[in-house]
Amino acid sequence: MASLPLFLGLPVTTPVALAAPPAAAVQLARASDGASPFNPALYNPAILRIGFSEAKGKSANPEADSFLDITLVPPDGDVHGARSEVSLKSFNELLRKLYGQLASQSPLDVNDPNSPARQLYSILIQPIAAQLQKHKITTLLISADAGLQAVPFAALHDGQSYLGERYGLGMTPALGLTKLAVLPEKAQPQLLAAGASEFVGLNALPLVPQELDRVGKGRANQSFLNRSFTPQVLLQKAGDPLIDRVHIATHAEFLPGGPAAARLYSGTGPMSLRQLSQLRQRRGEGQLDVFSLSACRTALGDADSELGFAGLALQAGSRSAIGSLWYIDDVATSALFVQFYRYLDQGLPKAEALQFTRRAMANGRMRLVGDQVIGAGGDVLLSKLTTSQQRRISTGLQHPFFWAGIQLLGTPW
Known about the structure:
The protein is an alpha/beta fold. About 25% of the residues lie in helices and about 20% in strands. Helix 6 (about 210-215) links the parallel strand 6 and strand 7. Helix 10 packs across helix 11. The two termini are about 30 Å apart.
């Protein structure tokens, strides 16, 4: 694991942007997920910096080969730090076990303090848990080392609730890539929705047409499906400074060779991850607000692809990007993104829109009724599901497998 100084890239004074919620949130009529309302008056984000450094024989525990440094930068008051000794072998084994439970949709045994979800929480969050409560933090922008970017923070559990239910979460590989300033409020954000449902040599994604239609419901948007979704159209349209949000629903894959080899499938064929870098030049100073990728395992790529498509979306000039850490069921993924955009359209900050979506799935308020997926507010998210599609979510969407892998990178508001 790379050794990083504790405050590498971390401002020691709180950014002004963290001192107050976005204007849209302040003016928001409280949105509800059916369990608890979003209260903009309580909105209180903070930065959480987590990094490993080599112990180099200085640890008291002979089995610990690293120090884990945790720093909380609240919106006001003192910066808080904690250091613990960690065996990377043991840490990675816990992470491997948690991924195994998530992939197999096995019980996470959160009532057992020795379960991976509980132990990882104890290592990564518990040292500053009291300060989170003291400062009444609602949202965490987590700046994490490369060895921690694959941690499904939303699935960590304190014995009472999952971290992804309790907090709005954002992840950044480096604060220097993260635009902390609050954008001016826009009455009607412009959405570009593009995707492919039919492929040669790859499984069809039959829900993509519905997903594209429903994420833009009630908003000004442009939509491109299958043959009309070409690499050129994506780069041209997403490069238009008038576009605020881009949502892509398709297949993606990572191959050895870095960004040039990683591929996102348009309706006419694959495009390389590297091509997204053109967006920054096309847009100039006009940043995208969010670039969401409804495709398998887009938050993380291989070692050469850094943070995958979502990471490159940040480098291409988007303030935020959303991708997945693992291969997620397409029915659940489509429903999740439709619900996320419903909350986003109500004015919730991005991390809270994703938090409320996770919460709605975890508590069963997003559910299958007949051949429809019903959302937290009782509206239809997806309809006309086939028997096979219904079967895949027939036991519910509560397991973190369905919702903890969707990761928000970059600016959480």
